[in-house]
């Protein structure tokens, strides 16, 4: 692809099998650095599976076999030299449902940096503040950092999870339907945040909400039955898609 | 995979917008046809009919605009649906303007009715015919999603421009020859210019329709002969 040089994440001929069944087939996709890529497609199309290939979350599933490559800054994440722990630090993930740990807000955000060896309380305080600010949550929680994360609203919990993800300073953020469990206000805040996050990170977001993809992403990739059907600037995918299957999907002719 | 139920509602609403557009197209055509007929036949009641019917076209254009906004708010359309709505919003504006231009012709017809004609009108009725033919093509191209018809319509504007040229030149000769005709000749020249503008709006329709069909913005000029090459 033309923007290969500036691409942060590149998949080359990526195929993933569950047993003998391919769930993702021969996907070639380049994600430019500091941009938002939306992955859309009907349930079971392979978009979440593809997303999970990027930080090797599928390693946890037995019977999964991956062929092809996922390159981050040109380095194959499936290569023998890749350390999975450091890969997951570089590639953070936010899930469908907010999943804060049953600790205080402060401890949730400090958890990752501590795991990676940061012990100085002052440094940790700085990281917590910077991450919570980065997740647009600081003003709402700065006076109750010691209270339980479980008392936050759903939208706040999801932003806390984003703060937790960015606390270890990842380069890539994977988001798997991050607003599907949130109300419209919580959704709006997370979407606003995604647009802000791309100034520092490369964001890949799976969403079922096409309007959301249209609002937050620079480029959009449409998956169908394990294949990447079409990828391009979001503006073009949603106004004049090239492939009739994309057209049929975005106009609700199947789904 | 089954089509979604919401799709049926979208298609139904799009269908209503399309039939509204068909009616507005017919009104615009009737306005131009009526305006020119009033001028040619010196028919006062026809001119009044055209002027009075303009409110109806305005109302329909307003209804179409609101329906498109409502469609966007309700369904947040994408792809072909988004282009269809964008096209409809633009078309309603151009068609409403064309209907207005028919009224302009009718108003000038009323002024000229009591005067002795300086010449038999030949090319002005032809201009009206061409504009009406363009409108007819526009409605067909829009309803059938026919790109070829839209191109054909854009190319037709050359004929309207040629006729206008011919009318203006002829009127100029008459004015030089018989200065007493200047008032009426300039009024007829204005009518030709109004019809030429109607042709331009009809050409816009072709552009909107081609965008709706192909997803690419095209300029009508690429289907017309090169500039300065008037025959």
TrEMBL record, chain A:
Gene Ontology CC, one term: membrane
PROSITE patterns on file: ABC_TRANSPORTER_1, ABC_TRANSPORTER_2
Domain of life where this protein originates: Bacteria
Keywords: ATP-binding, Nucleotide-binding, Transport
Gene3D superfamilies with a match to the protein in the record: P-loop containing nucleotide triphosphate hydrolases (3.40.50.300)
Domain ABC transporter span(s) in chain numbering: 9-250
Family annotation (InterPro entries): AAA+_ATPase, ABC_transporter-like_ATP-bd, ABC_transporter-like_CS, P-loop_NTPase, PstB-like
Keyword Repeat: no
Gene Ontology biological process terms in this record: phosphate ion transmembrane transport
A GO molecular function held by the record: ATP binding
CDD domains: ABC_PstB_phosphate_transporter
Protein name per Swiss-Prot or TrEMBL: Phosphate ABC transporter, ATPase subunit
């Amino acid at each position: 692809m033309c923007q290969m040089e500036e691409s942060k994440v590149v998949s080359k001929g990526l195929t993933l099998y569950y047993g003998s069944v391919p769930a993702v087939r021969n996907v070639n996709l380049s994600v430019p650095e500091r941009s938002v890529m939306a992955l859309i497609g009907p349930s079971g199309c392979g978009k979440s599976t593809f997303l999970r290939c990027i930080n090797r979350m599928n390693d946890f599933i037995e019977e999964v076999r991956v062929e092809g490559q996922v390159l981050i800054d040109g380095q194959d994440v499936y290569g023998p030299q890749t350390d999975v722990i450091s890969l997951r630090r570089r590639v953070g993930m936010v899930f469908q449902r907010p999943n804060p740990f049953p600790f205080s807000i402060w401890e949730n955000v400090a958890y990752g940096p501590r795991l990676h060896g940061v012990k100085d309380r002052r440094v940790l305080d700085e990281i917590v503040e910077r991450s919570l600010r980065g997740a647009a949550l600081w003003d709402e929680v700065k006076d109750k950092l010691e209270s339980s994360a479980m008392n936050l609203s759903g939208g706040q919990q999801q932003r806390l999870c984003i703060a937790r993800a960015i606390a270890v300073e990842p380069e890539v953020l994977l988001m798997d339907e991050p607003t599907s469990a949130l109300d419209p206000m919580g959704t709006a805040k997370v979407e606003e945040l995604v647009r802000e996050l791309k100034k520092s990170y490369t964001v890949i977001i799976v969403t079922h909400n096409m309007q959301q993809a249209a609002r937050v992403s620079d480029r959009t990739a449409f998956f169908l039955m394990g294949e990447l059907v079409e990828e391009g600037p979001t503006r073009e995918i949603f106004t004049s898609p090239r492939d009739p299957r994309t057209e049929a999907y975005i106009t609700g002719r199947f789904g | 995979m089954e089509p979604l139920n919401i799709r049926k509602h979208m298609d139904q609403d799009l269908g209503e917008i399309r039939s509204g557009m068909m009616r507005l197209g017919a009104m615009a055509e009737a306005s131009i046809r009526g305006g020119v007929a009033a001028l040619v036949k010196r028919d006062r009641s026809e001119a009044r009919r055209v002027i009075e019917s303009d409110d109806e076209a305005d109302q329909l254009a307003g209804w179409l605009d609101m329906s498109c906004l409502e469609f966007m708010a309700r369904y947040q359309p994408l792809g072909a649906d988004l282009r269809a709505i964008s096209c409809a919003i633009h078309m309603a504006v151009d068609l409403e303007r064309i209907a207005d231009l028919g009224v302009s012709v009718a108003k000038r017809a009323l002024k000229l009715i009591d005067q002795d004609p300086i010449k038999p009108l030949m090319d002005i009725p032809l201009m009206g015919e061409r504009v009406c033919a363009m409108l007819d093509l526009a409605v067909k191209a829009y309803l059938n999603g026919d790109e070829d018809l839209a191109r054909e319509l854009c190319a037709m504007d050359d004929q309207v421009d040629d006729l206008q040229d011919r009318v203006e030149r002829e009127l100029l000769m008459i004015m030089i020859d018989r200065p007493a005709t200047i008032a009426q000749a300039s009024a007829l020249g204005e009518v030709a210019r109004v019809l030429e503008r109607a042709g331009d709006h009809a050409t816009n329709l072709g552009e909107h329709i081609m965008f709706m069909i192909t997803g690419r913005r095209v300029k009508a000029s690429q289907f017309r002969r090169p500039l300065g090459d008037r025959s």
